[in-house]
Structure formats: structure tokens, C-alpha cells
Known about the structure:
single chain
Amino acid sequence: MTEAGPELEKLKQKLTDERKRIEEELTTLVEGESSESARESMSELSMYDNHPADVATETFEREKNEALIRNAQSILKRIDMALESMEHGTYGICSECGHRIATDRLEALPYAVTCMTCQERSERKA
């Protein structure tokens, strides 16, 4: 996939579109996190008045949002790496074995850095 062509341009556009979508999602998550923190600090002065289940729910929601933010940031990094590899002519090459990554895999996950064989091997180890 190192040669330029319509397939590569299509994947580049897909990466660019996905990057924009993830950035918008990240902005929404961060703004929601900020407004939630402000609301919490302006609400009750003491946690003693809150029911333990309410506190647990708030904690869960905060941790869930933080995990979603970290995931979005991670995907943005992978998208940027994929776009950079396109510039260097190394896009679509497995980082583990050096073989080409199947076009079907890149269409499904355009920021993939490993072929299916290496990905499956990695998942079995984990």
C-alpha cells in the first residue's frame, strides 16, 4: 500500500473524516467533564448529605468520561501516525512482521498498524 492511488486517497479521506469526528467527540467530552466539575464544586458543601449510591454513580460517570477521553486521545494519536506513515510511504505495512496489511482490514480500521495474523497473536498473548 506504499504506492499512491485512489485506494490510498480514499483511506486518507476516511482517516481525515474519522479524525474530525473524534476531535468533535473529544471536545464534547472535555466540555462535559469541565461543566460537571464546576457543577460539583458549586453544589453541596459536604458529601455527607449524599447517599452512597449517588456518590458511586457520580464517581462511575466521572471515571467513564475520563476513560472515553483517554480512548479518544489514543485513537487521535493512531490516526496521526497513520497519516504520517502515508507521507513516508510506509502506510499499510505491518509493524510486527513487515508484510502488507490486507485492504479489507485497513478499510475497517484505517489506523491499523498490524496485520490480522500479528494482531491475533498479540491478543492471544494478552
